[in-house]
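ligand=zinc ion
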Amino acid sequence: MEGTLRKGGKMKISVVENVLKANDAVAHENRRRLEAAGVRALNMMSAPGSGKTTLLHETIATLQNDLRFAVLVGDLQTTRDAERLGDLDAQVTQINTGRGCHLDATQVTQGLETLDLEGLDFLIIENVGNMVCPAGFDLGEHLRVILLSVPEGDDKVAKYPTLFRPADVILLTKVDLLGILDFDVSRVEEDLSHINTRAPLLRISSKTGEGMDAWLNWLRGQKVRS
Amino acid sequence: MHEMAIAVSLYDQVCRAVEAEGEIRVEEVEVRVGDLQLVVPEAFEAAWDAVCQGTGLEGSRLKIVEVPPRARCRGCDEEFRPEVDFYLCPQCGEADVDILEGREIILSSLTAERVEG
Ligand SMILES: Nc1nc2c(ncn2[C@@H]2O[C@H](COP(=O)(O)OP(=O)(O)OP(=O)(O)O)[C@@H](O)[C@H]2O)c(=O)[nH]1
Ligand SMILES: [Mg+2]
Ligand SMILES: [Zn+2]
């Protein structure tokens, strides 16, 4: 839609174009490509250090005999997270965003170029640790996995609702620390009761293994049925 | 922090719109910004100025129009206006919505002056 209105030497041009269109179109194409290959894609988002890479490692190590995984891991700098996953039977590609505070759909497309999608069950995208920016960018994922770790505090759902609102599952991580830190799980449940009642809230610890079965069962249930 | 990425996309779209108009000088760029994008207006303006520096768009002003969210309940199809931190459906009491409005960032219009050659 375009139109030009002239008044004296000035003119007003109506444009009406979605500024995020470029990203959305690329995300759509990523999703189509993953679906064609029968791959379910998960976008994992949280604050820095909530335990995304640790959980990914435990998850894939446990399931790798039954299910095929690939991982795209986003960080501003370093290939450390990819190296931590290097001993797994999974394709892992690190994406460095430089100064970028989030992954965008084009970076995921470039990541997909490095992966063989044939026979893959899950693509897990570990987004850049950040509670605000990643939530605004569709990557072409099917499901959003949001982590909140006990050391971050029980007020984070209330403070960052736009991260938790679109979650398909919410993982309360590092629950081995619940007895050490003052963290009231009922405050999280209370906040979620008006922000997101769809996503299950699962309590897990990658350190002790507590709650891992519920998470692994949820994940198994998301596999594309052939 | 994502204001810079948004400013870069916006710049490309403004350039394309300007191209279609010939020799003009853009004074104001009006953008509708959904509240759920959590764009910080001052950061967006600063990013815009940085992106435009040294280009034909240098000196153009951003006019940011905030768009409040609108949602549809996935359970009962009720449409309502949630708050950024409150999505409870007034009809069925669940918080499980599709966002209809409030996530978009839209270049809506340009105010410009023809450059007299
Ligand atoms: N106590 C405890 N510590 C954990 C647990 N999971 C992870 N950690 C620790 O938390 C720290 C951060 O974990 P990572 O897995 O690197 O977190 P991340 O979310 O991938 O971090 P970024 O990629 O930097 O955003 C590490 O020191 C982990 O050992 C847990 O279940 N319990
Ligand atoms: Mg990590
Ligand atoms: Zn409802």
